[in-house]
Write a structure and sequence with these properties.
Layout: H1 2-62, H2 68-79, E1 83-87, E2 92-102, E3 116-127, E4 133-140, H3 146-164, H4 172-179, E5 191-199, E6 202-215, E7 219-232, E8 246-251
Antiparallel strand pairs: 1-2, 2-3, 3-4, 5-6, 6-7, 7-8
């Protein structure tokens, strides 16, 4: 009986140790696998960013457009960057954009791993003497994309508001009221409607978006980008038309 009790006690002592060791190994193995999957997703994002830069460079080199707005639009189409700045003296465009990718976390999942990676990329396009454009892609601190991300979200909201707006209210004051419910002063407004032009069955609005954010290099910073929002009106009554899609095109910052 004493021997049985001794064996039983040993089993009770060893079993938790074995269980803990098994769980530790399972979590360690899952962590290693998640690191691998996370790195694979990150590498994929970097490849996508470089591919986008290469396609943009090829398009810029092949294009005969020299206007700033046309070049901005081309860069935006390939990089989908909400904020693109242009240094006229250096003839350099700089765009920043966040990119994200998902992966399936290995089981068991540690510390709420959501299976997603997100990176901030900076794109630089330069036009030196000669026909060719050059590009460079760099990974930046996540905070560097803060202003760009917020403007991207504000742009999406503005497009939806302009789609829902009754055509009769597609004026500068009408659109400004829809985008700036807080009625902030002009210098504080994050969505400033510079003008709305109605021509035939088209309404074109020029809107300046601005956001204050924190940058690791500059501290408190302000990002801004001007967009041309175009809505195509339809129906017999232009004053009652709603729900038409709105296209967006970035234009020079000093709009």
């Amino acid at each position: 009986m004493r021997r049985v009790l001794t064996i039983g006690c040993l089993v009770l002592l060893v079993a938790p140790i074995v269980l803990v060791a098994f769980l530790w190994y399972s979590f360690w193995q899952a962590g290693q696998e998640n690191d691998r999957r996370r790195q694979t997703a990150s590498d994929s994002l970097l490849r996508q960013a470089r591919d986008a830069a290469d396609r943009t460079t090829d398009a810029l080199t092949a294009s005969r457009d020299t206007g700033t707005d046309a070049l901005l639009d081309m860069i935006w189409k390939y990089t989908e960057s909400p904020v693109i700045t242009y240094d006229e003296d250096r003839r350099v465009f700089t765009a920043v954009a966040s990119r994200s990718a998902k992966y399936d976390p290995a089981e068991p999942v540690l510390f709420g791993d959501r299976g997603e990676v997100k990176h901030c990329f900076g794109y630089t396009y330069a036009h030196r003497p000669g026909p060719a454009w050059t590009s460079e892609v760099t990974e930046r601190d996540r905070e560097a994309c803060g202003g760009s991300d917020m403007i991207g979200g504000r742009l999406g909201s503005a497009r939806m508001e302009m789609e829902r707006l009754d055509a009769g209210r597609l004026t500068r004051p009408g659109l400004q009221d829809a985008l700036d419910l807080g009625r902030l002063p002009r210098e504080e407004s994050r969505s400033e409607v510079r003008g709305v032009v109605r021509k035939g069955r088209t309404a074109v609005a020029l809107v300046l978006f601005r956001e204050r954010y924190w940058s690791p290099d500059e501290g408190s910073a302000v990002a801004e980008q001007c967009y041309r929002l175009t809505r195509f009106l339809d129906g017999d009554s232009l004053d009652g038309d709603v729900g038409r899609s709105v296209t967006a095109t970035p234009v020079a910052a000093a709009c």
